[in-house]
């Protein structure tokens, strides 16, 4: 389905995750972040988002463990940056699919 | 029809860990971490043999039971055999077989990015989950707080446990 985010029409699934990660840009990220209760994205947020997008492009499965070990962010920081569902929320804001794993 | 969201979202899970084998401990760790990933509060309460997963001396050496484990079949320790062939207890009793089966399982779990117990507890603790030991079971096994993993959040009585587990949207799970 289509959704109008930050003045751009993008393709999203029923949960609001972008289905085409190439349609993503910084203002879309900011708009989704606001919807998810994160009023402004810091550089640290952006660093995590870029890392997620990079891993997604490389086809690597994302887990909370791998993210905590990435050197980009610690587990604690990740939970502070994206409260209430760190991997799900960060993936949504990064414009990549919802993570499917349990870890 | 109401959705679970409208009804009553899960806000907190308090998980009792009573078994001390590898397969007895892991489901609780996965459920606690999974809860935190969904923004649900989580706590783990280690009691009875579950304390094996929290005691410094044992937490890195948990094993899969290969004796008297009627659920274990030849497919499960990744031997590539059909699930319909049971793992013979006689074989399981040979020294080293439990360690071997455990090694195979650990390897498979690592492949799925499931951390070893100690690292898993760190992950849960870093995510804001709480880790508790059961006072009565510790008294029984003559364990002191310093015998447990350093980051344990407290030693609880049954009353303490129910107090911390209380609240709307709160669930108690027994494993």
Strand fraction of chain B equals 5-15%
Order of helices and strands of chain B: HEHEHHHEHEHE
* Helix run count of chain A: 5
User: What can be said about the biggest beta sheet of chain B?
Assistant: 5 strands, parallel
* SS field, number of helical segments of chain B: 7
Q: What structural class results from the helix and strand content of chain B?
A: alpha/beta
Estimated radius of gyration of chain B? 18 Å
The helix fraction of chain A, in percent, is: 40-55%
Choose one word for the global shape of chain A: globular
How many E-type strands of chain B?
5
Q: Provide the β-strand percentage band of chain A.
A: 5-15%
Helix content of chain B: 25-40%
| CATH arch. level architecture of the largest domain in chain B | 3-Layer(aba) Sandwich
Tally of separate domains of chain B: 2
Low-confidence stretches of chain A: none
Main beta sheet of chain A, described? 2 strands, antiparallel
Explain what you see.
The complex is a heterodimer of chains A (about 100) and B (about 180). By secondary structure, chain A is mainly alpha-helical. Chain A has helices spanning about 25-35, 45-55, 65-70, 75-80, 85-95; strands at about 1-5, 10. Chain A has one domain. Chain A contains five helices and two strands. Chain A has a two-stranded antiparallel sheet with strand order 1-2. In chain A, a hairpin with a 2-residue loop joins strand 1 (about 1-5) and strand 2 (about 10). The longest helix of chain A has 15 residues, at about 45-55. Chain A is globular, with a radius of gyration of 13 Å. Chain B is α/β, with parallel strands linked by helices and about 180 residues long. The relative contact order of chain B is 0.21. Helix content of chain B is about 35%, strand content about 15%. In chain B, helix 2 packs parallel to helix 5 (about 115-125).
């Amino acid at each position: 389905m289509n959704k109008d985010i930050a003045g751009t029409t993008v393709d999203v699934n029923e949960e609001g995750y972008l289905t085409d990660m190439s349609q993503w840009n910084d203002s879309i990220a900011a708009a989704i972040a606001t919807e998810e209760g994160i009023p402004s994205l810091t550089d640290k947020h952006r660093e995590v988002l870029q890392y997620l997008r990079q891993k997604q492009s490389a086809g690597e499965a994302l887990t909370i463990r791998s993210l905590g070990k990435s050197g980009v962010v610690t587990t604690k920081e990740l939970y502070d940056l994206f409260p209430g569902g760190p991997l799900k929320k960060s993936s949504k804001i990064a414009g990549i699919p919802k993570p499917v794993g349990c870890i | 029809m109401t959705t679970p969201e409208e009804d009553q979202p899960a806000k907190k899970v308090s998980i009792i860990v009573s078994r001390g084998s590898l397969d007895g401990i892991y489901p609780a760790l996965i459920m606690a971490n999974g809860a935190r990933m969904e923004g649900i509060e989580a706590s783990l309460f280690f009691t009875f043999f579950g304390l094996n997963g929290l005691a410094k001396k044992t937490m890195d050496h948990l094993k899969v039971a290969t004796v008297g484990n009627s659920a274990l079949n030849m497919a499960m320790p990744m031997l590539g055999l059909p699930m319909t062939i049971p793992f013979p207890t006689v074989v399981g009793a040979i020294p080293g077989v439990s360690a071997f089966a455990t090694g195979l399982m650990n390897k498979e779990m690592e492949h799925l990015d499931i951390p070893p117990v100690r690292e898993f507890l760190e992950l849960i603790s870093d995510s804001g989950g709480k880790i508790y030991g059961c006072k009565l079971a510790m008294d029984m096994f003559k364990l002191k707080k310093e015998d447990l993993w350093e980051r344990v959040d407290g030693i609880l009585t049954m009353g303490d446990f129910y107090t911390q587990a209380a609240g709307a949207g709160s669930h108690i799970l027994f494993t």
